[in-house]
Amino acid sequence: MVVRRAVYVLLFPLAFLLPLWVLIGRGILLDGIGWDFIGYLIVCPILFVMLLIIGGLVVWRPGVRQERAVSGWDAALLVVLWLVLIAAGFVAHPAIVAAAVVLVLAAFWFAVWELVTEGRRRLQAVMDDVDATVNGSRASVPQRPQPVDIGEVIVVTSHDVTDEKD
Questions:
Q1: Which of 12, 81, 122, 134 could form a disulfide bond with 103, CB atoms 3.0-4.6 angstroms apart?
Q2: Inside any domain, residue 162
Q3: pLDDT (average), residues 26-51
Q4: Helix locations, the chain, DSSP H
């Protein structure tokens, strides 16, 4: 749960810092100023927008906002993506770039799928409640027990409760 909450907290700060890291690490320090730097100037803002969209889709889910933690699959996918982006700032290898592109696309479509799935689940719960209400009972709302009339009750006590002045 700690990792899931940490990923939730780091969603938006890392959406800003990781593209900046790739731009500084690859574009300036390792490749220097030139055509590669122009490429990084184009790619890093796109990466920034994609990370913001992924973070927005994840946070848009009501379950994530209530728990203030992402799901386990979200956490695993995002941590791997972040590690690949950190590595992309250090190493110039086409496999790392390909892995980063695949992971960004996978994280985006996974976030969309999770959002749709949770929305469908919540809508189904509402529709079940509506259906149960129309049929005369409530499905998900706990009901109070109805009072039961058991007739006349005789109470026996250990002392006399009648008025002696009668």
A1: 81
A2: no
A3: 83
A4: 2-22, 35-60, 62-67, 72-90, 94-134
**For residues 3 and 70, is the Cβ–Cβ distance under 8 A?**
no
Q: How far apart are CA 155 and CA 147, in angstroms?
A: 20
pLDDT tens figures, 1-11: 899 999 999 99
In a domain, 151, yes or no: no
Range of the domain at 28: 2-134
Domain count, the chain: 1
Average pLDDT over the chain, rounded to an integer: 87
What's the predicted TM-score (pTM) here?
0.73
> What is the distance between the alpha carbons of residues 32 and 86, in angstroms, rounded to a whole number?
18
DSSP string, 114-149: HHHHHHHHHHHHHHHHHHHHHTTS-SSS--PPPP--
What is the pLDDT, as a whole number, of residue 35?
77
Distance CA 148, CA 105 (A): 61
Rg (C-alpha) for the chain, rounded Å, is: 30
pLDDT one-digit tens code per residue, 126-144: 898 888 888 776 555 556 6
